[in-house]
Design brief:
Elements: E1 5-9, E2 23-28, E3 35-40, H1 50-91, E4 93-94, H2 100-103, E5 133-134, H3 143-150, E6 154-161, E7 164-172, E8 178-181, H4 183-186, E9 189-195, E10 201-203, E11 205-210, E12 215-219, H5 222-225, E13 238-239, E14 249-254, E15 262-277, E16 280-287, E17 299-302, E18 307-314, E19 316-317, E20 328-332, H6 333-346, E21 357-362, E22 365-371, H7 376-380, E23 387-391, E24 394-395, H8 399-406, E25 414-421, E26 424-431
Parallel strand pairs: 5-13
Antiparallel strand pairs: 1-2, 2-3, 4-19, 6-7, 6-9, 7-8, 8-12, 9-10, 11-12, 14-15, 14-17, 15-16, 16-20, 17-18, 18-20, 21-22, 22-23, 23-24, 23-25, 25-26
Length: 437
Amino acid sequence: MPGEIVEVYRAPLRGGERDPREVVETYRQRDSREVVESYRRPVPVRRASPAGNAALRSVKRRGAFRGRRAGLYKFLICVAVLAGLAAGARAMDWFYYDWYQDEWWPGEAVHETETAEITIPGWPVDQGAGLSVSRDQGEPLTAQEVYCLLNPAVVTVQCATGEGISVGTGVIFSEDGYIITNHHVVRGGSECYVTLDTGRTMEVCFVAGDEDSDLAVLKVPPRELRLLPDEALPCASFGDSEKLVVGDPVYAIGAPRRLRGTLTNGIISAIDRDVEVEGRTMTLLQTNAALNSGNSGGPLISESGQVVGINVAKYMSDWNRDSVEGLGFAIPSAQLERIVNDLLKWGEVQPEPRLGIWVLTDEDGLLVDSVDPDTAAAAAGVRPGDYIIAAQGREVRTNQDLFRVRRTLYVGDRLELTLRRGDRVLEVTLELDEAAD
């Protein structure tokens, strides 16, 4: 090839003769900076006297014995150490709430940032903004179509804290710049910026957040929007997580390890998975889509390109974070709708109403096991042994069905229940005048 030089040099031995076993090769490409060299040389053979050979064999035998004994000691020590490490790893295998120690640079522990105050410049609530969840699923899309549709509405969130920089992901849900992310991404923050898929970085304001649900809302201020060509942002559409079934394909987009715009895929592994997180139980979607540090607050996306969850947690080992795979969790969109709209309207999540009913699920449906006295259910005449057929006109078969209806109600609302009592079907109305604990 032009510009390619290969040189072969065989070093002479005594008497000017060349040893064919000894070769020195040099290869140079056009770029003079790249040089690859290899050198092969035969090992010289020395002659020894018989006495010397015997002495050498004796030394070798003593050295081999000592080497074997030392090797045995080392092997036993290694086995003991590995056994200890394995036991420690099993003892330290926990469900980690997201990936705090990776995100909170330079790796501060969770408890040191749990109660940190958010001092990011604020944005007022009750400005007419809202999050809507579509009940129509839409047509399936390819992975490429999902990415092209959703990635422009996904941002990387970077928040300055007293401990360093917290990095997560957010989802734009309105053209005027409202963004959902996880509360722990902005916890303790004093300044917050988001980066679009185009690379543009904008300062954002803090609207409100709820630590129990681990959700927060941010807002791009008008001064930043005016710098955009259309003074508007691309936004994601949200779909109904209640329509998901185990096995449905899903995607995640985020900034794992600060790699912005990373797409991963998987399936829904479980629905309504109750997971205890920091002493409270969260009901989450489980997925095997790869989630890592930086995916916090990012979207879990259905095959029709709708956001059906906000990624919040993964299962990992404290000893070896790479030892557990495919156990990620997301907040269902069915919960997002109420929580986010409460934050936008009041700046805090309003309590759900208390029904006063304890239920069980059996082969015949949702059975009322007991009714608390002096509650809305008791006042409406609900009795143990009744079966709840419908709530607000929606069929219910499990306690999760009833909880979904309750999430749409507030203290002061009325709940219409359809009951089956023996051979009769009854309609009762609960006056919800008390908040749930």
